[in-house]
Each structure stands twice: as structure tokens, then as C-alpha cells.
Amino acid sequence: MAGFRTLDDVNVAGKTVLVRVDLNVPMKDGRITDDLRISRILPTLHELSRKGAKVVVLSHFSRPDGKPVPEMSLKPVAAALATALGSSIPFAEDCVGEPAQSAIDKLRGGGVVLLENTRFHAEEEKNDLAFAKRMAELGDIYVNDAFSCAHRAHVSTEALAHLLPAYAGRNMEVELKHLQAALEKPEKPVAAVIGGAKVSTKLELLGNLIDKVDKIIIGGGMANTFLFAQGREVGKSLCEKNLADTARDILRDAVTRGCAIILPDDVVVAREFRQGAPSKVVPAERVPADQMILDIGPVAAARLGTILADCKTLVWNGPLGAFETPPFDAGTVTVARTAAALTASGRLLSVAGGGDTVAALRHAGVAEEFSYVSTAGGAFLEWLEGKELPGVAALAAPAAVAAK
Ligand code: 3PG
Ligand code: MG
């Protein structure tokens, strides 16, 4: 891949390879509730192992704030990783120093070890050079397979890339390839579906996308702020009224720059927000004062389907309604299924990611049918904002050192 060295560019046999992955998986009562991040890193781990490397797995887990927090240990994840990988995985109680070194010393070629949560040390998040050197001492080569952590300039995501010969893992490679296909050199027309609750968290993203895509479809709570900015009644809907001016600026900017912003024609409203609450469909300009918008309506969903049918590329971030609380999932489900069908027929390249998006697509039963679903939350958003991701930039930087 242009700009990056990958596992194709290095001989790892007999080398100790530090692999940064994202094992920050959702857990409930000690059990992993979604193992997508684990399955995504298996190709890299298998390949390194098959090629005879000693594979040292690094990750953070949750936000322990620079000190050991027993409930945030990666130990329970080691067992899940071992099951997924089909081989036993020893666990080292620290990610640097003697515990790490002795666990690595016991590895044979092809063996895999998991080190404890990198964020148990405050230096990790400070991108501290001395700490980075201690970590780099453990290995010969650095592989970053954690796109979803690439927005963090931490020791294990950034500094290590400058201290060891650095390569993109297979997961990182696939992720970057799809993201480039979706926004950097996309087949046009390009549509973006942008949902979620708040405009305030997506301002930079909208500003960047206006220049890059042909149509921005806005749904979720965000759409309410835009409807309000256009002078519509939004009743009791979630709405950031203080951002009305900003929303109007965005709408104006979009016109000047040739990007169509599409707001829902009709919406689903209810008096209260709870599962199964009595609801009705109303035109977006007729929201009753005592009701709230909780989803896009069927006319909007059908129109969005027609719009997507005319596009070649789709970037999707955020649900179009309160999808976790039926019946307010209908809009998201309908549009997601349309996008999946267009993808299946080869007419659309569809890339989705960020926060609730994977859960929303899963709920619609189509997560597997998109061209690519990113496991990244914050990193996907920052990428949509057009920001340089430190973890990616460090890999792309001309290498100070290269492995033979
Ligand atoms: C994520 O879950 O988005 C990544 O693992 C990064 O975690 P963070 O937001 O705590 O840095
Ligand atoms: Mg995050």
C-alpha cells in the first residue's frame, strides 16, 4: 500500500514483533459481548505466528487513568483471544520490565503472548519517550494493527513506530484501503449518512464532508437541530437550539460548495420516549408541540433509498433514529437494508463506522453486507473530520530504521 510498509515488506522469522492491537472490547460481567475487534486481528496474529515470529500483543483496555485497576486487566481477554486464535496465550502482568521480558523469553518461534494493559502506566498516554524506549527494548519490530486507536498519540500507538522498524498489520491495511476508497479517491457520486444525537459532536465532520461528498443525509437527533434552524417546530425533541446559527451556516456553505444536505421529509413522533410508545408519522414541518421526533418517517426512508441508488459510494456514521428503542428503529433499518442490497448488487461501495453505527447495522441484520464496517469509534470520526491520525502518520513517516 502506498506510503506504508506492510507485512509483505519484512521478514519476521525469528524476530520478536510487538503488535499493537485494540482489545478494548465491550465487556459485561467479565464476558466479551462483541468480539469483532478480536476476529479482525486474527489474520495478523496468525500470519506472524506462521512465519515464525515471537508475537507480543500490546493493547489498552478501558480508561484506567495511568494506574493499575484490577477490573481493567486484560487477563480475561487473553482467554478469549486464545480461544479465537486456537492456541494457548500466556499473559504477562506488566507491559514493560521483567514480567514482560521473562514471558517473552519463554516464547518459542510462532508463540503469542499478551501483555497487561498499556494504560496501567501514566507514561503511555503521555507518549513518554523513556517509557517508549523501555517498551521498544522488548522487541525487534513494531506492527500496528489498531486503526481504532490511531487517533491517540500514545507510546504503543505512536512513539514505538519511531523506535523500531514499523509496519501496518493486515487489519490496519484493510481499514486504510477501504477508507481511502470511500473518501480519498471515491467513485462519485458519494453520499454520507450522518446520524446520532448531537450536532455539537459532528460540526468538524460536517465541515469536512461538505467538500468531499455530493450528498449529506442527516438523521437522528442531529436532524432536529437543522429542522429547528430552518424555522420548524420541533416540539419536545432533542435539539441543540444554541447551534441554530451554526446549522444555518452549514446549510449555506453546503449550497455554495455544491453539496446537497438532505433532511427528513417526514418524521416519527411520540409523546414519550420508551419502547413501544404510541407514535405517529407527521410531515417534518408539522411536529406537534407536545411531541418529540424519534425517527425519520417512511417517506424520508424511501427517498433516501432512491438517493442511494443513484450513488456509487456511501459513508455511514450514526443511526437515523433511536434504533435501540423500537419502533424507532424502522428508519435506520430500512435505509441500512437498502444500502446493503445496493452493495450486494455491486452498485454501491458502502463503508460504515463510529460509535453506535455497528450496533445499528447489526440490529438491521446487515453489518456483514456492507463493503466494510470499521471497528473504530473516535478514530473513524476523526478520519471523517479530515484529521491526521497520529498512529497512521507515524507509520507513513519515512522510516528511521528498517528491518532486514
Ligand atoms: C475505542 O474504543 O474507541 C478505542 O479503543 C480507543 O479508546 P479510547 O477512546 O479510550 O482512547
Ligand atoms: Mg473511544
UniProtKB/TrEMBL annotation:
InterPro entries documented for this protein: Phosphoglycerate_kinase (IPR001576), Phosphoglycerate_kinase_CS (IPR015911), Phosphoglycerate_kinase_N (IPR015824), Phosphoglycerate_kinase_sf (IPR036043)
What keywords does the record list, in alphabetical order? ATP-binding, Cytoplasm, Glycolysis, Kinase, Nucleotide-binding, Transferase
Q: What is its EC number?
A: 2.7.2.3
Q: Which residues does the annotation say bind ATP? A: K202, E324, G354, G355, D356, T357
Query: What Gene3D superfamilies does this protein's entry cite?
Result: Phosphoglycerate kinase, N-terminal domain (3.40.50.1260)
Report the catalytic activity: (2R)-3-phosphoglycerate + ATP = (2R)-3-phospho-glyceroyl phosphate + ADP
Give the source's domain of life in one word.
Bacteria
Identify the residues that bind (2R)-3-phosphoglycerate: R37, R119, R152
Q: Please give one Pfam family short name.
A: PGK
> One GO BP annotation here?
glycolytic process
Which pathway is this protein assigned to? Carbohydrate degradation; glycolysis; pyruvate from D-glyceraldehyde 3-phosphate: step 2/5
Xref: CDD domains: Phosphoglycerate_kinase (cd00318)
Q: Where in the cell is it found?
A: Cytoplasm
Q: Which GO terms describe its molecular function?
A: ADP binding; ATP binding; phosphoglycerate kinase activity
Q: Which residues bind substrate?
A: D22, L23, N24, R37, H60, F61, S62, R63, R119, R152
Which terms in the GO cellular component ontology are assigned? Answer: cytosol
Database matches in PANTHER family: PHOSPHOGLYCERATE KINASE, PHOSPHOGLYCERATE KINASE 1, CHLOROPLASTIC-RELATED
Subunit and partners: Monomer.
Q: Which family does it belong to?
A: Belongs to the phosphoglycerate kinase family.
**Name of the protein described by the UniProt record:** Phosphoglycerate kinase
Query: Which gene underlies this protein?
Result: pgk
